[in-house]
Design brief:
Shape: globular
Helix content: 10-25%
Number of domains: 3
Keywords: Signal
Order of helices and strands: HEEEEEEEEEEEEEEEEEEEEEHEHEHEEH
CATH superfamily of the largest domain: Glutaredoxin
Oligomer: single chain
CATH class of the largest domain: Alpha Beta
Number of helices: 5
Organism: Chitinophaga flava
Radius of gyration: 23 Å
Pfam families: AhpC-TSA
CATH architecture of the largest domain: 3-Layer(aba) Sandwich
Number of strands: 25
Protein name: Alkyl hydroperoxide reductase
Structural class: alpha+beta
Largest sheet: 9 strands, antiparallel
InterPro entries: AhpC/TSA, Thioredoxin-like_sf, Thioredoxin_domain, Thioredoxin_ResA/DsbE_sf
Strand order of the largest sheet: 4-3-2-1-9-8-7-6-5
Strand content: 35-45%
Distance between the termini: 44 Å
Length: about 425
């Protein structure tokens, strides 16, 4: 905890230095309220994002990231006379920014993980611009409408499952979501100009950027960038019947196992096990997550209110967090933030460093840990009845509705068992 606080204070100090605050000088007006357009510099690409600032002073300011229909709110701190520090909620990262004399904002997206040496992403932002990629009226008329369901073939050094793209185009405006076996990209927003298309998304974790070309045969070729180094090429073909592998069959118990077993510390350092009296005779939901993982926080935002509504029906839940630092003090901070934000009333345990191999070692009954999140449902006899890999949020439409319908049906049936 001391290490994290030290790094946070270093970040705040750097922001203060950016502000060049001088004692006795009057404070400058706060950032203008209204819509803004930001642009990250990602390798050789410019990745736009949109946000809104509300509040005439830092004490009441709210920073809202806009992605299609999605809105994510963050707290704003002003350090010095003309600098901002915007923590990305449960993600241990922040936008560190300087308010220029002309009103423009410049800065960087910075990791706050102790001893993490990842590169920061520089950005700038301009007030009053609500478009994504190009000002209205400057875009080239689209040659094609790429609305629909797409089979995206991924090219990678290691075997990588295909992905599914759900796209919706209205004129030049393009929105959509990319589904994979680990979850979804969250909502993306972009444009189609001529025979090219672009999409971007920024909700707190590292930004996503997709750029591609629509070929004469109406297939797609392009590249998907996740953060700084994770760039993958893809081909796409429209296919209304394409589906991902069944998420209920990807992770399973090894032969000879019927139960899951683990002993891990909670945020106070007390060891917790499924064999504890608290869980005997209960239906238990085990959620394997990380606060750095957007699909995990989306899954938590679904599970926590469901549990709070149903906890008196003979059901318990446990979240096992694998974090970006193998340190209980650090995990107490990050997972504590998650607990507070989503009003989590079930046990939260610390599994260790965020690594699928480590998670597999801590949960040896599983064939492998394929994705964060993974959700395991255990019946009243202590036997594993269902394992779901990944999570698809509301933006995925029918996929999300089907997940919720099956969740409620299956949990109702298990809770009803004697």
């Amino acid at each position: 905890m001391k290490t994290h606080k030290s790094l946070l204070m270093t970040g705040l100090l750097s922001v203060s230095l950016l502000g060049s605050a001088v004692a006795g000088n009057p404070e400058k007006p706060f950032v203008k309220e209204g819509v803004w357009r930001g642009v990250f510099t990602l390798s050789e690409s410019s990745v736009p994002f949109n946000f809104e600032l509300k509040g005439k002073d830092p004490e009441h300011a709210v920073f809202t990231l806009i992605n299609g229909t999605r809105r994510d709110d963050f707290h704003v701190q002003r350090i010095g006379r003309d600098s901002l520090f915007i923590k990305m909620n449960t993600y241990d990262a922040a936008l560190v920014a300087h308010i220029e004399s002309d009103g423009k904002i410049t800065g960087e997206y910075r990791s706050l993980v102790p001893n993490f040496r990842g590169n920061a992403l520089p950005f700038y932002a301009e007030y009053g611009r609500d478009y994504r990629f190009a000002p209205p009226g400057t875009e080239e008329t689209p040659k094609y409408d790429i609305s629909g369901k797409w089979d995206l073939s991924i090219y990678s050094k290691e075997p990588t499952p295909n992905r599914v793209g759900l796209l919706k185009q209205q004129g030049n405006k393009l929105t959509g979501v990319i589904l994979s076996v680990v979850g979804d990209s969250r909502e993306l927003e972009g444009t189609v100009h001529g025979d090219e298309f672009e999409l971007s998304g920024f909700t707190g974790p590292s930004p996503i950027y997709i750029k591609g070309k629509i070929n004469d045969d109406k297939s797609l070729t392009g590249e998907l960038s996740l953060g700084i180094y994770n760039n993958i090429k893809f081909d796409g073909n429209k296919n209304a019947a394409i589906e991902l592998p069944d998420p209920y069959k990807l992770t399973y118990l090894k032969e000879g196992y019927k139960k899951l077993d683990f002993t891990l510390p909670d945020l106070n350092g007390k060891n917790v096990s499924l064999s504890d009296e608290k869980y005997k005779g209960k239906v238990v939901i085990v959620e394997i997550i990380g606060t750095w993982c957007p699909n995990c926080t989306d899954q938590t935002s679904f599970l926590s209110p469901w549990f709070n509504k149903n906890k008196d029906r003979g059901v318990e839940a446990i979240a096992i967090g694998f974090e970006q630092k193998d340190d209980l003090e650090y995990a107490r901070y990050t997972l504590g933030k998650l607990k507070d934000k989503y009003n989590i009333q079930y046990d939260i345990l610390f599994g260790g460093i965020a690594d699928k191999k480590v998670a597999s070692e801590k949960l040896p009954a599983l064939n492998r840990m394929m994705a964060f999140p993974t959700t395991i449902i255990i019946d009243r006899k202590g036997e594993v009845r269902q394992i779901h890999t990944g999570y698809t949020g509301e933006i995925t439409g029918q996929y999300y509705q089907d997940y919720v319908a099956r969740w409620n049906k299956d949990l109702d049936a298990l809770i009803a068992e004697k």
